[in-house]
């Protein structure tokens, strides 16, 4: 018997020896390395981009495809530890507070019954099950908080669930804030990270941009008290620099290494580039009648000004700005502007660089919003004018009121674009300077978004662009990246880490990551 | 006894066969032990498979051989650029074979064989990196063949017979690299069919120039298994009216899988009273496997270029009759893969390999012997890719590759009875 066991042991050894093994297995130590960095406890800080927010919601698969989670998967091959995330309860997105829904479900790409006209729609296949007031009870490696601006990360009470309904606190942070007066940075540092990533500042501009610039630019006001800022405001450059400096100081206090990302140009997001500002496409006769319409407007305004005592020559000169020529084909829309003595109608044609928001009512655009709403009554007045008659003041007003310029909240005009651009340049200069000063890895993600918006970024299954729905880079809200774009960001970060810390890390294949999700569960 | 066991173990440590593509060379315990040679070896009823012409030279009136092997295969995969690795679930195939022959008179013998020369069983982790090519596959083909063996002279005989094949397939893979339903479950397709049958044939000849020297020839025809109206299940597709996407549910599928023709020539030489040497050369006509094309009842289809090339196997075997009761065998072979570079699909991840085999027969009585065999197939690791992964949603073709390494080993047990 003893002998038999011995032979069995020999046989078993023989079987084990048959197992295939690579000459250089990648999971063996030394193949992938962390260089000067230490990935054993990686903590990610940021906003919705870091959290994995997409399709206007936070949901599980989006979180699983967040760049920090993908990155942590690669870190695992080089000494990285477990990476935890405050996963939502479902893939519907949306959330409840005290049982009442306060956040919308995600968007999905729905086709109509004929399999045509794909477009984003709110998913209705399931009701949200994430209850904001259920605190998850601990901190997570992914500390990304959707909606957070730079100064929010250091704001006590930002995760106080009691303040959520009043808009004083963030529902996403409320789910995992360690206490009512906890700060995001405090909870991050308390985890004693050995490595961190910081991508913050996008919302310091984005809220202003997505509101069509209805907020306040605090570089103009000089207000440096963020406690007084509104959600749609642009953060003051000095506030940003100070907050960013403090965040990095806290994160590097224990000697942790990290990577920081700069801020891409929000105006190249599909949210701003999908609806063209010259989508007023006219045939020859409509163009002629619109041109005629504005000749009439010019006449009416001249008469009104003269009637109000403005010298005729001056009245004619002011009114001449409304002699707008429309041509067959695409024309730039009209936009509302401030009513002044020099622009009494408060209307002008858009300039080619000005942008319309994705959320603009496109049905209204087709019906005259952005140009003229020609009612039968208006046409009647135009007929009088063409016949050489003189309309009454009331009839003149009817014509003037038919002009329907695009409202401020639906567009970004040149001034607003300038405010956005100036703030971003300043923020990015701060980020780069502080990255250098702290010897951190720096990823110029702004450059890659420029590439995506101008020709695209090739991958093994085609090209990733910023085109809405079809480009593969952006989710259905037109602002947040797809899993595939998160993969690109991950690769950018990996390159920066390799360069700065001498790490050896594998990249990921963007082609293995999806884009938008289809569903017809949209009622 | 102890010596005997050591001897057995020694024989077991050097081992046998498998072959390229989805050919599985385990058609006889005695042959396996000798590197799966046998076209010119007159030894047992295994000749029904190896060379029916030789049956008529068997000394006994009735010969029966039955056996089974357990095939343990492992394939590992890694891509060092992407840091991904995977490993198949060690699958265990159990090919069986059963042969019988009866000598009607001095010049005529009849036989019947049941064997499984083609099959494949590969199970990768579900949703692994290559899941758009295969999650798991199970192919099996059972050959049932009556044969006749006619002695034209003491030096020359011919044989052959019709082959009835019944096959089955179960194959699952994801539609592409990314499509999921709302919950993130990968959209996938399973095809399943069994009882797919067809007919083929084999012919063979044996020439014995001297008492100790034999030459053999055998040819087995190609058989195309045509699955018609098999069951295809589409699962985890998004609930969408997108005209480019199939709906969830069950539909039918049609597909063809060729079981290639095989030509074998070989020799055996009894160079000593106790020693026999055998050599077989197999030519496998894999070029018939150009593409695996599936058409589904819901109008979608899947075209998968394979472009296999004809391949050769060189087999060497040795038999030593240690005592009147014990025969020891060993073998070696070189197996060329039919898979061309750029067509290396993880569903049959085979590159060139070397086989080592060994075995023993122990005669319990003069009539009944136990045959044990073992083979180990050694593959070099290989950097390869499949460059024709077509995504039906984006209409793009991508490549999936990395480093592969396979191994297979198979212990087998059988009985030989003669009367």
UniProtKB/TrEMBL annotation, chain A:
<protein>
    <submittedName>
        <fullName>SGNH/GDSL hydrolase family protein</fullName>
    </submittedName>
</protein>
<keyword id="KW-0378">Hydrolase</keyword>
<dbReference type="GO" id="GO:0016787">
    <property type="term" value="F:hydrolase activity"/>
</dbReference>
<dbReference type="InterPro" id="IPR036514">
    <property type="entry name" value="SGNH_hydro_sf"/>
</dbReference>
From TrEMBL, chain B:
<dbReference type="InterPro" id="IPR005017">
    <property type="entry name" value="OMPP1/FadL/TodX"/>
</dbReference>
<keyword id="KW-1134">Transmembrane beta strand</keyword>
<keyword id="KW-0472">Membrane</keyword>
<dbReference type="Pfam" id="PF03349">
    <property type="entry name" value="Toluene_X"/>
</dbReference>
<protein>
    <submittedName>
        <fullName>Outer membrane protein transport protein</fullName>
    </submittedName>
</protein>
<comment type="similarity">
    <text>Belongs to the OmpP1/FadL family.</text>
</comment>
<keyword id="KW-0998">Cell outer membrane</keyword>
<keyword id="KW-0732">Signal</keyword>
<keyword id="KW-0812">Transmembrane</keyword>
């Amino acid at each position: 018997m003893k002998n038999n066991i011995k032979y069995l042991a020999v046989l078993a050894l023989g079987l084990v020896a048959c197992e295939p093994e690579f000459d250089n297995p990648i999971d063996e130590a030394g193949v992938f390395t962390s260089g000067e960095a230490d990935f054993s406890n990686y903590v990610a800080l940021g906003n919705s981009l870091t959290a994995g927010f997409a399709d206007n919601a936070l949901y599980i698969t989006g979180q699983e495809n967040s760049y920090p989670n993908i990155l942590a998967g690669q870190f695992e091959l080089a000494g990285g530890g477990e990476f935890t995330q405050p996963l939502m309860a479902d893939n519907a997105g949306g959330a409840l507070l005290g049982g009442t829904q306060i956040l919308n479900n995600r968007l999905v790409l729905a086709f109509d019954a004929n399999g045509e006209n794909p477009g984003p729609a709110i998913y209705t296949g399931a009701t949200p099950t994430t209850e904001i007031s259920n605190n998850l009870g601990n901190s997570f490696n992914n500390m990304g908080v959707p909606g957070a601006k730079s100064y929010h990360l250091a704001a006590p009470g930002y995760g106080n669930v009691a303040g959520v309904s009043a808009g004083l606190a963030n529902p996403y942070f409320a789910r995992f804030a360690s206490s009512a007066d906890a700060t995001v940075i405090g909870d991050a540092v308390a985890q004693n990270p050995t490595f961190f990533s910081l991508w913050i500042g996008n919302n310091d501009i984005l809220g202003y941009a997505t509101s069509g610039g209805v907020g306040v630019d605090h570089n103009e006001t000089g207000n440096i008290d963020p406690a007084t800022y509104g959600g749609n405001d642009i953060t003051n450059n000095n506030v940003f620099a100070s907050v960013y400096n403090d965040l990095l100081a806290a994160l590097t206090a224990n000697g942790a290494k990290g990577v920081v990302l700069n801020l891409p140009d929000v105006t190249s997001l599909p949210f701003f580039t999908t609806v063209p500002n010259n989508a007023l496409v006219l045939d020859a006769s409509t163009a002629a009648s619109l041109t005629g319409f504005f000749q009439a407007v010019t006449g009416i305004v001249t008469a009104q000004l003269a009637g109000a005592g403005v010298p005729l020559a001056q009245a004619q000169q002011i009114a001449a700005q409304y002699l707008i020529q429309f041509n067959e084909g695409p024309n730039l829309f009209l936009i509302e502007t401030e009513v002044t003595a020099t622009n009494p109608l408060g209307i002008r044609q858009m300039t080619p660089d000005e942008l319309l928001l994705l959320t603009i009512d496109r049905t209204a655009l087709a019906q005259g919003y952005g140009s003229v709403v020609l009612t039968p009554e208006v046409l009647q007045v135009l007929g009088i004018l063409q016949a050489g008659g003189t309309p009454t003041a009331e009839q003149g007003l009817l014509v003037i009121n038919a002009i329907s310029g695009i409202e401020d909240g639906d567009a970004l005009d040149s001034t607003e674009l300038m405010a956005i651009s100036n703030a971003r340049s300043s923020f990015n200069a701060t980020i780069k300077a502080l990255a250098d000063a702290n010897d951190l890895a720096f990823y110029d993600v702004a450059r890659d978004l420029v590439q995506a918006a101008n020709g695209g970024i090739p991958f093994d299954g085609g090209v990733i662009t910023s085109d809405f729905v079809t480009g593969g880079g952006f989710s259905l809200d037109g602002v947040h990246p797809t899993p595939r774009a998160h993969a690109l960001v991950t690769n950018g970060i990996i390159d920066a880490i390799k360069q700065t810390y001498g790490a050896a890390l594998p990249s990921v294949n963007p082609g293995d990551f999806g884009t938008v999700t289809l569903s017809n569960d949209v009622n | 006894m102890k010596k005997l066991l050591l001897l057995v173990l020694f024989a077991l440590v050097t081992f046998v066969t498998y072959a390229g593509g989805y050919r599985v060379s385990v058609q006889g315990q005695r042959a396996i032990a000798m590197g799966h040679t046998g076209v010119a070896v007159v030894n047992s009823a295994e000749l029904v498979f190896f060379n029916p012409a030789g049956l008529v030279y068997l000394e006994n009136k009735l010969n029966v051989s039955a056996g089974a092997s357990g095939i343990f295969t492992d394939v590992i995969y890694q891509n060092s650029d992407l840091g991904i690795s995977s490993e198949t679930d060690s699958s265990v195939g159990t090919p069986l074979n059963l042969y019988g022959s009866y000598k009607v008179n001095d010049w005529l013998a009849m036989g019947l064989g049941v064997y499984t020369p083609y099959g494949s069983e590969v199970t990768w982790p579900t949703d692994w990196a290559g899941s758009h090519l295969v999650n798991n596959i199970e192919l099996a083909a059972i050959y049932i063949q009556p044969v006749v063996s006619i002695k034209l002279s003491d030096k020359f005989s011919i044989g052959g017979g019709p082959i009835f094949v019944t096959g089955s397939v179960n194959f699952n893979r994801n539609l592409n690299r990314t499509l999921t339903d709302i919950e993130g479950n990968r959209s996938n397709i399973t095809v399943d069919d069994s009882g797919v049958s067809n007919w083929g044939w084999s012919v063979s000849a044996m020439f014995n120039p001297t008492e100790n020297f034999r030459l053999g020839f055998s040819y087995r025809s190609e058989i195309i298994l045509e699955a018609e109206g098999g069951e295809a299940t589409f699962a985890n597709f998004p609930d969408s009216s997108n005209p480019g996407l199939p709906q969830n549910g069950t539909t039918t599928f049609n597909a063809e899988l060729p079981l290639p023709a095989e030509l074998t020539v070989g020799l055996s030489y009894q160079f000593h009273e106790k020693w026999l040497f055998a050599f077989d050369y197999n030519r496998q006509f894999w070029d018939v496997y150009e593409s695996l094309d599936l058409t589904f009842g819901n109008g979608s289809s899947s075209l998968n270029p394979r472009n296999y090339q004809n391949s050769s196997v060189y087999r060497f075997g040795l038999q030593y009759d240690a005592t009147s009761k014990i025969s020891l065998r060993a073998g070696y072979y070189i197996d060329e893969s039919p898979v061309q570079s750029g067509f290396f699909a993880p569903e049959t991840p085979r590159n060139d390999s070397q086989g080592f085999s060994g075995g023993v027969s122990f005669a319990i009585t003069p009539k009944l012997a136990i045959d044990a065999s073992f083979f180990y197939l050694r593959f070099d690791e290989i950097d390869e890719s499949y460059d024709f992964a077509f995504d039906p949603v984006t209409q793009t073709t991508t490549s999936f590759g990395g480093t592969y390494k396979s191994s297979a080993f198979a212990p087998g047990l059988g009985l030989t009875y003669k009367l």
